[in-house]
Amino acid sequence: MRTATIVFVLALSAGTARADTTLCTFSSPHHDIEFAGDAAVSAVYVQRKDGPHSLPAGSYRLLRFEAHEARIDFVFENPGDARLPASFTLKGAGREVWIVQGHERERGELHCGP
Predict the structure, then answer these.
(1) Contact, 27 vs 111, CB < 8 A?
(2) What Å distances lie between residue 36 and 17, 59, 88, 94, 101, CA to CA?
(3) Which of 29, 39, 102, 103 has a CA between 20 and 30 Å from the CA of residue 88?
(4) Distance (Å, whole) CA 57 – CA 79
(5) Distance of alpha carbon 93 from alpha carbon 87, whole angstroms
């Protein structure tokens, strides 16, 4: 399993690089993901050892996002860029959210609200 921490930030406010309000955070032993804003996803940023990277538009799909239920279904498909993380999915609710990268699967938690 990868030991590097990857931080994914989804900015949900149109026209801004990053929204100010955190809606939900996903945490697992090797991944931290922050969902911010209050509208449709407009950008996704990945924090890696060498700094932040923006996921290209069209490389990800937010199939389901319900902050009030702490529920997510997110798919990222790496377009062949070694600077970006491997393709992954993030799916589940509350304490049963799974991130899957290749053959690696790790359980984490999605926390939403104050």
Answers:
(1) yes
(2) 11, 19, 19, 17, 23
(3) 39
(4) 10
(5) 20
| Structure tokens given for 66 | 């319900």
Radius of gyration of the chain (CA): 13
Structure tokens at 29: 């032993």
Burial 72-100 (b: 16+ CB within 10 A, else e): bbbebebeeeeebbeebbbbbbeeebebe
Q: How far apart are CA 62 and CA 102, in angstroms?
A: 19
pLDDT tens digits, one per residue of 55-109: 787 898 989 988 788 899 999 999 998 888 899 999 999 999 999 999 999 999 9
Residue 11, SS3?
strand
Its pTM stands at: 0.72
